[in-house]
Amino acid sequence: MISRTSSTSFARQSAKTTDTMTQPDDQRWMALALSLGTRGLGQTWPNPAVGCVIVKDGHLLARGWTQAGGRPHAEQHALSQIPEGAARSATAYVTLEPCSHTGQTSPCASALIKAGLACVIVATGDPDPRVSGRGLAMLREAGIEVVTGVLEDQARRDQQGFLMRVTEGRPMVTLKLASSFDGRIATATGESQWITGPQARLQVQALRARHDAVMVGGSTAREDLPSLTLRGMGDRRQPVRIAVSAGLNIPTHGPLAEDDSTAPVWLIHGPSAPQQALDFWGARGATLFETPTGPSGLDMAHAMRALGQAGLTRILCEGGGSLAASLLAAGLVDHLVGFTAGVMLGAEGLPSLGRLKYPALADAPRFALVETRRMGEDVMHRWQRVAV
């Protein structure tokens, strides 16, 4: 929906849309801003990854996106590229409502006002109670025309992790499964490297680059000794490395324990984890999250809320089967990304998912196909959760 109303509540202004139309180029410029914003995915948490372009008389003056670590914000990054006064009477295209509160920097709404912009076009609102509607109200009170809802659906898809953290208290979760054609992730002897080929594995690195954290279960940490770091993607902020083990049975050798890279290690464990393990990982600088247990093991909904409170907006889960099943059973998986290889491992192979106790087909979680793409000799397929 496209709105030019003057309501200070984004929810109300979306409901009170007028018939005013945007200019023909508005979608083109917003598409550029959205493209810029995605550069920050996985790099800006706990802040959203926002894009901004500033246009005057049909010409691009500046472009910006939220920088690694969340500062500076996209609007201020764009404004810093042009001389003072150059943006007067220009139009800014911003993918998320400009912030209106003072944190580590001054509000972006204030910066846009000071720059003398004539119009600010916003893709979607920010539900953060410190911002929601206030940024738009500040702009309008300063006499700036405000347009909302341009390419809003795409903006909300890009911002899903940030929006979920604010509205649901947890990060968005993507489950990645690399398996044989018959759904196995390892042979009967546990051999799993490599089921898929180099192009699929490179795409996994690209997935890691767009997420704040990479998460595995305790069995995967023990059997594969994964590094969970980002490789071959240039100079980017490393994702947080998360391992989930009720008893904190994580190897005290290997990359998680010995790698002194800038990639933090966060461990989710149960209340009965031995003190010796707690002391070992605490001395290594790991962040520990104690999570209650239930009949099916660790309460992953509680764990996800804790990770959201710690600032994460996007998590990539890379298995194993038990962790994947627990996330699915708790309704915590928002996207599936499968890499399927043309190899058969048979019933003796390790299945990609642990037990899911659904008495009827209708009870099983459903996902809708978004994309299918060839990756060398493998196939990548992306799915998103079907709203119930």
UniProtKB/TrEMBL annotation:
GO terms for biological process: riboflavin biosynthetic process. It comes from the Bacteria. The keyword NAD does not apply. GO terms for molecular function: 5-amino-6-(5-phosphoribosylamino)uracil reductase activity; diaminohydroxyphosphoribosylaminopyrimidine deaminase activity; zinc ion binding. Its cofactor is Zn(2+). Substrate binds at S192, R208, L228, R231, E318. Residues 24-147 form the CMP/dCMP-type deaminase domain. It catalyses: 2,5-diamino-6-hydroxy-4-(5-phosphoribosylamino)-pyrimidine + H2O + H(+) = 5-amino-6-(5-phospho-D-ribosylamino)uracil + NH4(+); 5-amino-6-(5-phospho-D-ribitylamino)uracil + NADP(+) = 5-amino-6-(5-phospho-D-ribosylamino)uracil + NADPH + H(+). Pathway: Cofactor biosynthesis; riboflavin biosynthesis; 5-amino-6-(D-ribitylamino)uracil from GTP: step 2/4; Cofactor biosynthesis; riboflavin biosynthesis; 5-amino-6-(D-ribitylamino)uracil from GTP: step 3/4. Keywords: Hydrolase, Metal-binding, Multifunctional enzyme, NADP, Oxidoreductase, Riboflavin biosynthesis, Zinc. Pfam families: dCMP_cyt_deam_1, RibD_C. NCBIfam families: eubact_ribD (TIGR00326). This is Riboflavin biosynthesis protein RibD. It comes from Litoreibacter ascidiaceicola. The lineage of its organism: Bacteria, Pseudomonadati, Pseudomonadota, Alphaproteobacteria, Rhodobacterales.
